[in-house]
């Protein structure tokens, strides 16, 4: 029989709704008589190995609800990617504090940490229930219809591009917006939901699921600019050439890599500037502007999908239920059960851990520079209620007098 | 007696509420029996000299209201800065179409165009009433308490920094956000309204009203980082050294200048990247990220101040009333008359045209890296209703067992 203490932590990049899952765990856990204390680790797995723990049972329900509505990881996060040795340290602390259930809210790296800790507990014959709670704006967890955090970030991207398109229509030129997503283009593709009128941007979308060719890019931009007198482009930070080399790294003077060996893509405007410079130099278009959406797309205070909020809460609640009533460890997954409704399942950790989902082929159009109706139908209900709408004047021309 | 035709146009950078002013002009004008037709020029003064005019009297009230709630200039805008000769062309078209009233919604360059056209009409003894309607996210028009468009952009910046601060607290490091504003730091200073708890960012704010020193910047960042273990910085794109040289231009390979001879500051991430590189190189801090807010801060669909919306509508309405009942040309100004209430006045065009307001000294703190309470009191009521709030857990530490 597991002890009455549970531990929850948050890992990886923050999202707009990751605290909903935290509140879901804490509030649901307190409904179980068998649970005495709910601990939280500060800054993810790093907080565990440092024994930097807090007692979340001391939080008021009201403050937990307020924190649930606040973006970014309230417990703090970490970019540490635990290996076997690191996970042994985690397990040592969990055992020392007599933790019976371990919940880790995070992406595919976090689910891998849960998998290894689960194995450590089995090896030691220590009764520990380990549950991974999904979270990532990249939407790249396998086995889920989508992941909490993605819908709100997608909504931000759609609203941003709807505005950028209006701005670009007002002062015509080329506009490039660079979106997060190293391997999966879901978030970049969300820009397509900004379109209302047939000539609205984004006119071109470049995803990491397709090889990027600078020559073809320039041809695409030129054709669009000639057709509409302007061009709005959504680009994933993860675009790469046929050899797999990230376009962003082509010009990086000093390439920064994270603990996973990945080149730093976010927090720099280099890719947008590179693409703008190419267009200015080769296409002789005067007004070319590039924005890198950066951290705003995952942490902007005040742009959230209510669908995402509810689901993020529910995966936290369900995680506790699976832990208390189930007989195995696992990763909570969202399954679409209607248009629009969802159910929750507990997947095996091995089925999720360390794996990366990318956009399915049926979501990407034939040219590779746009999305299909299947993708629009997939994403639309996730964006939530109250999406703002863009309106136009119906121009009624006045006859010229002088010319 | 002026004719029954009026012409309205929009100039300069779009804002979230510039179409409120357009709707205000059109809807109010139609209440006057003396006005037959309301024309609009597409893409500002350029549309006038090209006779690219539309009849706004054909718009439905419902669509005008919908467009009013849509960001960015619905008629299209222009960066053209008319000189005397250009204004003579404008006047020629106005006369040919028997325009009796000319309304131009824009910033200080636009007000200067209105001033010159007004002079042309006087020289020709042509009865033309010319009214400038204020608009600019920079808040840099003299004679106004503030300008329509600024409050909504300020709200975006405050919400963005509130989120960026949470993100930075979750994954500590240095975060730099670069904000629009060449000469006036109002919009950058709005980042200060993101702070709730005493240790919240932005911890440092750099304004174009003060000379920027890279050495002092690095000292400031280092001190803040040592105190809080992290550092959030708001930087105006217009920061410059003691000689007046823009920091952004220090590294620009190929400097782009607009029609006003100004170096391109927006639409590139160069300044943020430069500052991040300096911190990485000199302070040995690992996690340093820079975002350039770019066009999102003026055109994001779905972030607007309701106070700003109402005032932008009113300056459009008042412009028509001043034109129809007043005896002179001028520029509509917002005057604060309570906490919080406003009145509208018509200033002489010469008092506004081509002049630039910068932040008053009483709004900037002694160190030059933050704002005063006077500024907070000034800005707070402009942000409007329903500002989202950030909440924290009240950490209750668990005693260590192993260490």
Summarize the structure.
Chains A, B: One of its GO terms (biological process) is fructose 6-phosphate metabolic process. The structure is a homodimer of 403-residue chains. Chain A is α/β, with parallel strands linked by helices.
Number of strands of chain A: 11
Order of helices and strands of chain A: EHEHEHHEHEHEHEHEHEHHEEHH
CATH hierarchy, class of the largest domain in chain A: Alpha Beta
> What is the average of the pLDDT values of chain A?
95
The value of Rg of chain A in angstroms is: 23 Å
Please summarize the sheet with the most strands of chain A: 7 strands, mixed
Q: What is the number of independent domains of chain A? A: 2
Structural class of chain A: alpha/beta
Unreliable sequence segments of chain A: none
How large is the count of helical segments of chain A? Answer: 13
Spatial separation of the terminal alpha carbons of chain A: 89 Å
Q: Any idea what the shape of chain A is?
A: elongated
- Secondary-structure arrangement, i.e. CATH architecture of the largest domain in chain A: 3-Layer(aba) Sandwich
For the largest interface in this structure, which chains are involved and how many residues does each contribute?
A: A-B, 85 and 85 residues
Describe it for me?
- 2 copies of one chain form a homodimer.
- By secondary structure, the first copy, chain A, is α/β, with parallel strands linked by helices.
- Helices cover 36% and strands 16% of the residues of chain A.
- The first copy, chain A, folds into 2 domains: 5-148 and 304-352, Rossmann fold; 152-302 and 360-382, Phosphofructokinase domain (Rossmann fold, 3-Layer(aba) Sandwich), CATH 3.40.50.
- In chain A, the strands form 2 sheets. Chain A has a 7-stranded mixed beta sheet with strand order 3-2-1-4-5-10-11, sandwiched between helices. A 4-stranded parallel beta sheet of chain A has the order 7-8-6-9, with helices on both faces.
- The first copy, chain A, has helices spanning 18-29, 44-49, 61-68, 84-96, 108-123, 150-170, 186-189, 214-228, 270-283, 296-299, 306-325, 349-352, 373-379; strands at 5-10, 37-41, 53-55, 99-106, 129-134, 174-179, 204-206, 231-236, 288-292, 330-338, 341-347.
- Chain A is elongated, with a radius of gyration of 23 Å.
- The longest helix of chain A is centred in the middle third of the chain and has 21 residues, at 150-170.
- At the A-B interface, strand 3, helix 3, helix 4, helix 6 and helix 9 of A face strand 3, helix 3, helix 4, helix 6 and helix 9 of B.
């Amino acid at each position: 029989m597991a002890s009455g203490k549970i531990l929850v932590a948050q890992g990886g990049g923050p999202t707009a709704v990751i605290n909903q899952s935290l509140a879901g765990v804490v509030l649901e856990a307190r409904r179980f008589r068998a649970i005495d204390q709910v601990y939280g680790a500060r800054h993810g797995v790093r907080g565990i190995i440092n024994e930097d723990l807090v007692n979340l049972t001391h939080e008021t329900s009201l403050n937990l609800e307020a924190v649930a509505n606040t973006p970014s990881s309230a417990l703090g996060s970490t970019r540490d990617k635990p290996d076997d040795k690191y996970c042994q340290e985690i397990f040592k602390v969990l055992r020392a504090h007599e933790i019976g259930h371990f919940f880790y809210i995070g992406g595919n790296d976090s689910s891998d940490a849960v998998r290894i800790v689960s194995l450590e507990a089995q090896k030691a014959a220590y009764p520990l229930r380990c549950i991974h709670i999904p979270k990532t704006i990249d939407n790249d967890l396998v086995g889920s219809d989508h992941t909490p955090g993605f819908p709100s970030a997608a909504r931000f991207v759609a609203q941003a591009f709807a505005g950028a398109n209006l701005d670009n229509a007002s002062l015509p030129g080329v506009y490039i917006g660079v979106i997060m997503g190293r391997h999966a283009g879901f978030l970049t593709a969300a820009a397509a939901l900004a379109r209302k009128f047939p000539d609205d941007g984004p006119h071109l979308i470049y995803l990491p699921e397709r090889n990027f060719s600078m020559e073809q890019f320039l041809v695409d931009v030129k054709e669009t600019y000639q057709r509409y007198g302007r061009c709005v482009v959504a680009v994933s930070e993860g675009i790469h050439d046929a050899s797999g080399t990230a376009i962003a790294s082509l010009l990086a003077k000093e390439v920064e890599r994270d603990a996973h060996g990945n080149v730093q893509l976010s927090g720099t405007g280099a890719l947008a500037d590179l693409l703008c410079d190419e267009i200015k130099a080769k296409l002789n278009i005067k007004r070319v502007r590039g924005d890198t959406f950066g951290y705003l797309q995952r942490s902007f205070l005040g742009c959230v999908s209510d669908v995402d909020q509810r689901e993020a809460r529910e995966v936290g609640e369900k995680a506790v239920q699976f832990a208390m009533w189930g007989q195995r460890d696992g990763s909570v997954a969202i399954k679409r059960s209607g248009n629009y409704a969802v159910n929750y399942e507990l997947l095996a950790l091995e089925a999720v851990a360390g794996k990366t989902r990318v956009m399915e082929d049926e979501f990407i159009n034939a040219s590779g520079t746009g999305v299909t109706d299947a993708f629009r139908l997939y994403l639309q209900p996730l964006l939530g209620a109250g999406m703002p709408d863009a309106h136009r004047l119906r121009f009624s021309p006045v006859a010229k007098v002088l010319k």
